[in-house]
Amino acid sequence: MFRVAIVGRPNTGKSTLFNRLIKRSKSVTWELPGTTRDYVYGEGSIGDKKVSFLDTGGISFEQSELTEKIRLQVQLAIEESDLVLFVVDGSIAVVPEEDKKIANMLHKSKKEVIVVANKCDIGEKCSDPFIFMELGFGPPVTISALKGKNLDELLELIEEKIPEVTIQPYVYPRVAIIGKPNVGKSTLLNTILGKERAIVSDTPGTTRDVIENIVEIEGEKYIFLDTPGMRRGKLNKFDFVISLRSLRGMRESDICLFTIDPANVSRTDEHLAGLLYKNKKSGIIVMNKLDVVNTEEVEKYLNEAAYRLRPILFYPSVMISALKKKNLHLLFKLLKIVRDNIERKFSDSTVLKTILSIVTKNPPPRKGKRFLKIYEAKIVKKNPKTILIIVNFPDIIKDDYKRYLTSKFREKFDLKGVFIDIIFKKREKR
Hints:
alpha/beta, Rossmann fold, GMP Synthetase, Chain A, domain 3, 3 domains, seven-stranded mixed sheet, six-stranded mixed sheet, 16 strands, 23% strand
C-alpha cells in the first residue's frame, strides 16, 4: 500500500487536511499512541489505488525533551512513507526559518515531497505561494483544507505518484501473532519454526518489524507474521513506528493469534481486543506462559480475560507455554478449525432460511407501523464472513439486534473464531 505522511510546523492545518483526505478516500482510521496525542492513521483509496495517510505532530525546533520526541516520531513516519505532503502556511509573505529546516530534513530523507500551501481561503488567495519554491520541491499546490478548495488537484497529484502494481493473491492463510510487548509472541513463533528467526529478549519491544515465515503444520501451510508489541501510554522514540507496523501486520492477516499473559491482562489488551474487533479480524486467544501461571488462580485469570476481552469472546481460547512447548497441538487444532470455518461455503438458500428462522423466533422491535421484512440473504465475502440481507426498512435494525443475529448465526453453524459482519440493504424499487 502506498504510504503518505503529512508533516509541517504546528498550526499549518495538517490535521484539517488529513481529515479532508481520509473523507475523500473513504479511509478507515485508527488512533496510534503518541507523545503529545494519539497519532491517526487512515487507509483508503484514490481511484482504484490503495493509499494510507498518516497525520503527524507539528515539528518545532525549540530545545526540549517533548519537541525532540515529536521530531523523532516525525522522522520515523517520513522513513515509513513513500510520499510526504509538506504543509506550509500559504497566507504568509515570508518563508519561516522552521520551514527551511524542515525542508533540509526532507531533502536528507530523499523522499518525494509535495509542498502544500494551505490556508489559501484567507483573502481568497495565497499572498504569494511561489515564495515556497525556495524550499527546493517545485511549485506548491495551493489549497484550503478548511473549505475543501483545490483538494481534487492535490488528490490527482498523489494518484500520479502511486505506481501501478499487480498484487498477487496470497496462496496460504496469513497468521499474525498480535499482542502487547513481552507476552511471548516471538518465543511462540520461534517454537513453531524450530529456530530463532525473531530477536527474543526479556526487554519489551525487541521485535522492531513484521517478520514473515511460511510454516507447514500437519500438512497445511500458513504464512506467520510476528508483529512488534503494541502499547499504549507514553512512548519512546521507536514505539510510534512499531505500533504503525503492528497495525499493518494485523490488517494484512487472515487469522490473528491474540497472545496474552493471563496473569497480566491489562487495559492495553482491552485496547487491542477493540482494534481486532474494529478491523473485523478472525482469530484465537492464546493464553501464554502456562509454565509460570499459578494453577490455583486460573479461574480468576479466565474471568479477568473474559471481562477485558469482551468484543472478541467469539474467539476460541487455549492455554499454552510457548517456552516449554505445552499444548501447542491444541493451538494447531484450533488454527485448523478457524481456517476451515473461514473457508466454509453456504448456499444462498441456507443463509436465507437460517436468517428467517432466527428473525421469526425473535423479531426486532417495530418502528411505529413498520416491521422488518426480509427478501434475500447471502454471503458476499468469506473473511470477514459478510452476510448481505435485503430488507424493506434497514433503519429499524439497531446494533444490539445485529449482534444478536451475528451470535445466533455463528452458534447455528459453530463458526468459532470467525468474524461475521451483517449488512442490511434496502430493497431497490422495481
